[in-house]
Amino acid sequence: AYVYYPNDYNNANLVRLVIMARVLRLIRLLNSMKKFQIIINTLDKVLPEAKRILTMIFFLMYMFSIIGMKAFGGLITRDPDNPISSRLDGTDFQANAYWANNFNDMMSGINVLFNLLVVNNWPEQADGILAVTGSKYSRFFFLGFHIFGVVIIMNIVVASIIDTFVNEWQESDGGASRKEGDSESSSRTKMLTFKNREYFVKGTSARY
């Protein structure tokens, strides 16, 4: 730090930055831990394969966002002249100030679907749409995304991570057991060799 900023050795922000950088030395300690290495190896194998699942999630959210824009676009606004927004009075949607969670444009729709994907108060989202549409069939939109996005795709993500982690754990234990077996076999070989040499020396001395 002194090489790049020779005149700022008394700069408080630079001192804080250097102190924070010292914490990075803990990575060397974590790298020596077996369980942490298994986690890193799991992420290293999962991330390259995750692009297919992430692409699937993106297309699913894109498709449902377009459907939501066609079905619910313009219904939820903070415009006082919008008579439909008054239907949200007294609902949890209004109490939690979820006005930004709407399908008025593509990004707002993806924001709503991301909240549904992580199961973040999705019943309140559905009740808000139900209140402005006045149709109970609007729940099927949220139910369909929950089935395809959460029940199917997210479970595939979790299952793939767990499967990769278990395989890494088994390979790590197998490698350790193989090393122990090799060390035991080598020690036995050395012991047998030593005994054979001792027997040969005794036999030779007995002859003479």
From TrEMBL:
Q: Quote the subcellular location field of this record.
A: Membrane
Membrane-spanning intervals of the chain: 53-77, 97-119, 140-162
* Gene3D superfamilies xref list: 1.10.287.70
Q: What is its main location?
A: membrane
Which Pfam families does the entry mention?
Ion_trans
* Example GO molecular function: voltage-gated calcium channel activity
Annotated Ion transport domain residues? 10-168
In what way does this protein cross or attach to the membrane?
Answer: Multi-pass membrane protein
* Keywords, sorted A to Z: Calcium, Ion channel, Ion transport, Membrane, Repeat, Transmembrane, Transmembrane helix, Transport
Database matches in InterPro entries? Ion_trans_dom, TPC1_plant
Q: What GO terms fall under cellular component here?
A: membrane
Q: Does the keyword Glycoprotein apply?
A: no
> PANTHER family from the entry?
TWO PORE CALCIUM CHANNEL PROTEIN 1
The protein, known as: Ion transport domain-containing protein
- Tell me the organism's taxonomic lineage: Eukaryota, Sar, Stramenopiles, Ochrophyta, Bacillariophyta
